[in-house]
Each structure stands twice: as C-alpha cells, then as structure tokens.
Design brief:
Nucleoside Triphosphate Pyrophosphohydrolase, eight-stranded mixed beta sheet, 11 strands
C-alpha cells in the first residue's frame, strides 16, 4: 500500500481489499491506465475533493508511474524522543509538524535528517536509532508538479537545553509532548505528518 498526499489529501494505491478504517470515507476506483491516473491526480487537486483509493494488481507499478509525472525532491526528517520518552514537535505556518528538510548535495539522507532537526529546533546530541518510513506529498509551484519524498528516522537525544525555533523557516514554536497521550487524530497538523505519527503509534504501541 502506498500513500500519496496531494494538496494534503490522500491518494491510496493498494492491492489489498482491506483498506484502513481511517480511509474508509474515500471513493474507490480501479486503475484504468496512465491517462486516467493523472486525471485522478488533477481531480484530487480540486478544492472540494477529499482524496481517493486506487486499486491495482500491480500497486508498485502504478506507484512508480505516478512518481514519473513529478519532479522529485528528497528530504530527511526526524521522529525525535528525549530521555523522558517525549516527542519533539514544532509549529510551522500555524500547524504542528515534525522537523524535516531538503537533503543538500553530497549529504546522505541520514546526514540531512540530523542537520535539519538540529537547525530547525536548536537541538544537538542526536542519535539515529533506525530508518522508519518514507512519506510522499505533492505540491504545485508555478504550474509545475513536485513530489517530496521524506525519509523519516527514529531518533533519540539526551539534549535537555532550551529549544530554539528556526524562525527564518517559519517555525514559531518547538516543544516536547507526551506521545502516549498525544491525540494524533485531532492534532492540527498536515495529513502526511498525521499518518507518520499514527503509523509510529501502531508500530511501537505508544
């Protein structure tokens, strides 16, 4: 199953009959060729659309075809916990977010993820535990479609200093939150970020 977020709305590409309950309200259609795929993307981009589920016996092939219609940008991000098992959240453009950013030339995804967390949140003493997952979200800029693939890493830190938001990146607040009691369903965040947090809770029982 692949989860694209187009203008913050999900496009689920799947071979599975069992669609997660959180996507149960989305209209379902069967893949009908490359032309219909981009027609579906353009439809989801419309203001009143909520997203869609697309079924195919070759979800991986459809996923790769979809990617080929976008200019791809790679980013690295962190799901960061401190010694008190609290999650690092930041507020960007009025919504709660996880630290992430574009990978610079010559950097590995891991190096880019660590640097972005440090820069955006004023933090150090970071350690990557493991790769967690990729997220995919798209946007249009000057009429051109871009796909941002964010490589997410689970991180720990012993940092106990003052968190400093990178205001030049439109980050206004950084804080630690109790992840076990965090209401991810109702968090004011981007849908791609909500999905990563929900997957994390499911994977680690937090």
């Amino acid at each position: 199953m692949y989860k694209f977020f187009i203008n913050d709305k999900p496009l689920i590409i799947t071979e599975e009959a069992n669609i997660p309950e959180r996507f149960g309200n989305l209209p379902v259609s069967a893949y009908a060729g490359a032309e219909s795929l981009m027609q579906l993307v353009r439809k989801i981009e419309e203001i009143n659309e909520i997203g869609a589920v697309l079924t195919s016996s070759d979800a991986n092939g459809v996923f790769n075809l979809l990617k080929s219609n976008f200019t791809t940008i790679h980013a690295g991000g962190g799901i960061v916990f401190n010694d008190y098992n609290e999650l690092l959240l930041m507020k960007r453009l009025g919504k709660w977010d996880l630290p992430k950013g574009k990978i610079d030339p010559g950097e590995t995804a891991e190096e880019g993820a660590l640097r972005e967390v440090e820069e955006e949140c004023g933090i150090n003493r970071l350690r990557i535990k493991n790769f967690f997952d990729n997220s995919y979200h798209t946007y249009k800029l000057q009429g051109h479609r871009f796909l941002k693939i964010t490589h997410w890493y689970s991180m720990n830190t012993g940092f106990d200093g003052v968190l400093v938001p990178q205001t030049e990146e439109n980050i206004t607040e950084v804080k630690w939150v109790n992840f076990e009691t965090l209401d991810v369903d109702n968090l004011d965040t981007y849908e791609s970020i909500r999905e990563i947090l929900m997957q994390y809770k499911l994977a680690f029982g937090k």
